[in-house]
Structures are given as C-alpha cells and as structure tokens.
Amino acid sequence: MFYETARNDHGLPFNPLKACVVPRPIGWITSMNAKGRINLAPFSFFNMLSYNPAFVMFSAGGHAVDEEKKDSVAFIEETGEFVYNMATWDTRRAMSETSLIIDRETDELAAVGLTPAPCRLVKPPRVLESPVNYECKLHQIVILPGKTKHDIHHVVIGEVVGVHIRDSVIVNGKVDATVLKPIARLGYKDYVVVETVFEMEKATPEERIKPAHAAE
Ligand SMILES: Cc1cc2nc3c(=O)[nH]c(=O)nc-3n(C[C@H](O)[C@H](O)[C@H](O)COP(=O)(O)O)c2cc1C
Asked: Using a 6 Å cutoff on CB, does residue 154 contact ligand 1?
C-alpha cells in the first residue's frame, strides 16, 4: 500500500504512521522550573543523536489543556537542564501514570510515589527507580511547524554531561540489556520489552564484496 501523509488516505481503521518507526525508546524526562517545581513525563519521540560529545533529543507537541508548550519544554527553557531516565519493565506503570497528569502544578515524580535522587551536575532530580539516568544541559530547541498549535512540536536537544548506571546492570563489564529490560513504544497502544539480544559481527571486506544471497 501507499498513502500520502497530506491526505492521510491510508484507508485503515487506525493511523499506521507511528507503528512503522519502531521500537521508539522512551525518554522519561525530569525537569525543574525556576521556582524549583519538578516535572516528569515520558516522550517516545526520543533518541540519542551523537556520542562525543553526546546529545539526546525529545520532541513534544502542544499541551492537552491549552495547546501551549508542555511543562517539560517550558521548564527546560527556563532553567536549561533536564534528566533522561530510562523507562523499564519495572517502572512501566509509573511511567504511564506520569503521562496522564496534565495539571501544571503537580510534581509527577512525587505524585506516583517515585524517589527523587540528586544529580551531580544539574538541578532536576533523577528517578532512583530507573537504572540509567543521563544529566543533560540544554543545547537548542528547534520548533517544527504544525497545522494546529497542538501539532507544533518543540524538539529539545540536550548535551549529556553526566551518566548514572546502576551497578547491578553491569555484567562482565557491559551494560546488560536483558537485566535492564527497557521498554519502548510500538504503534497503537503497544509496547515492547527487551528480553532477548543477539550479537552480530561487522561484515568482513570479503563478505561485503559478495552479497550474502549470491553465495547460496
Ligand atoms: C509512552 C509514552 C510516550 C509519549 N511520547 C510523547 C512524545 O514523544 N511527545 C509528546 O508530546 N507527548 C508524548 N507523550 C505524552 C506526554 O507524556 C504527556 O503529554 C505528558 O502529560 C506531558 O507532560 P508535561 O506537560 O508535564 O511535559 C507520551 C506518553 C506516553 C505514555
């Protein structure tokens, strides 16, 4: 099938667009405003962009109540700092609950009973229940156009300045994804959890010259 995004004429009962870029990692973002109010929200338009120096990004649409900037974006604009917390199988319920709290005054971290832990280089707290936390300094906010205010997205790009990794997820010197059990977004209401991992060596120059199917 083929459809034009401008027409949205896919003919399916549900829009397939987000189901076709999967799995999307979930950036569970802590931020703090100038008054010290804390915010925590998940974003699946999230990824790592580079590693030396390391940059991460998340992209937020309009707020459910007034279509203005979401709290995460407004807070980060004010103070220039945020924390990426990894969403995992164990934290899945709390992660989902933090997305539903749209009251701007509420500290979602406290509201869902998570534990704030201090960061070393930035002021927003990290989520202690998350096995990985990246301390980030705002680099740039890019605004993507949208037909409605709700559709306008703020892409927040931050430089990773500090990395917390729970010692117990490091096995034989490597971060073990099967111990972390990160969750990620698929389309619709679906998620995926990392439980099996496979390793693949880089192709040798000889293998690259001869496509794999040619040898069969
Ligand atoms: C798994 C998951 C992924 C989400 N991803 C995004 C996203 O990428 N962009 C976005 O604008 N909202 C996303 N949301 C919705 C936000 O988390 C929600 O609007 C939240 O209330 C925003 O909080 P804030 O206004 O406190 O920043 C997601 C929700 C869930 C549960």
From this structure: no
User: Superfamily for 17-215?
Assistant: Electron Transport, Fmn-binding Protein; Chain A (2.30.110.10)
Over residues 186-205, the pLDDT tens digits come to 999 999 999 999 999 988 87
Q: Is 72 in the pocket of ligand 1 (CB under 6 A)?
A: yes
| 30-80 pLDDT per residue, tens | 999 999 999 999 999 999 999 999 999 999 999 988 889 999 999 999 999
Span from the CA of 161 to the centroid of ligand 1 (angstroms): 24
Average pLDDT value for the chain: 95
Does the reported pTM lie above 0.85?
yes
* Domain chopping of the chain, boundaries: 17-215
Burial 171-205 (b: 16+ CB within 10 A, else e): eeeeeeeeebbbbbbbeeeebeebeeeeeeeeeee
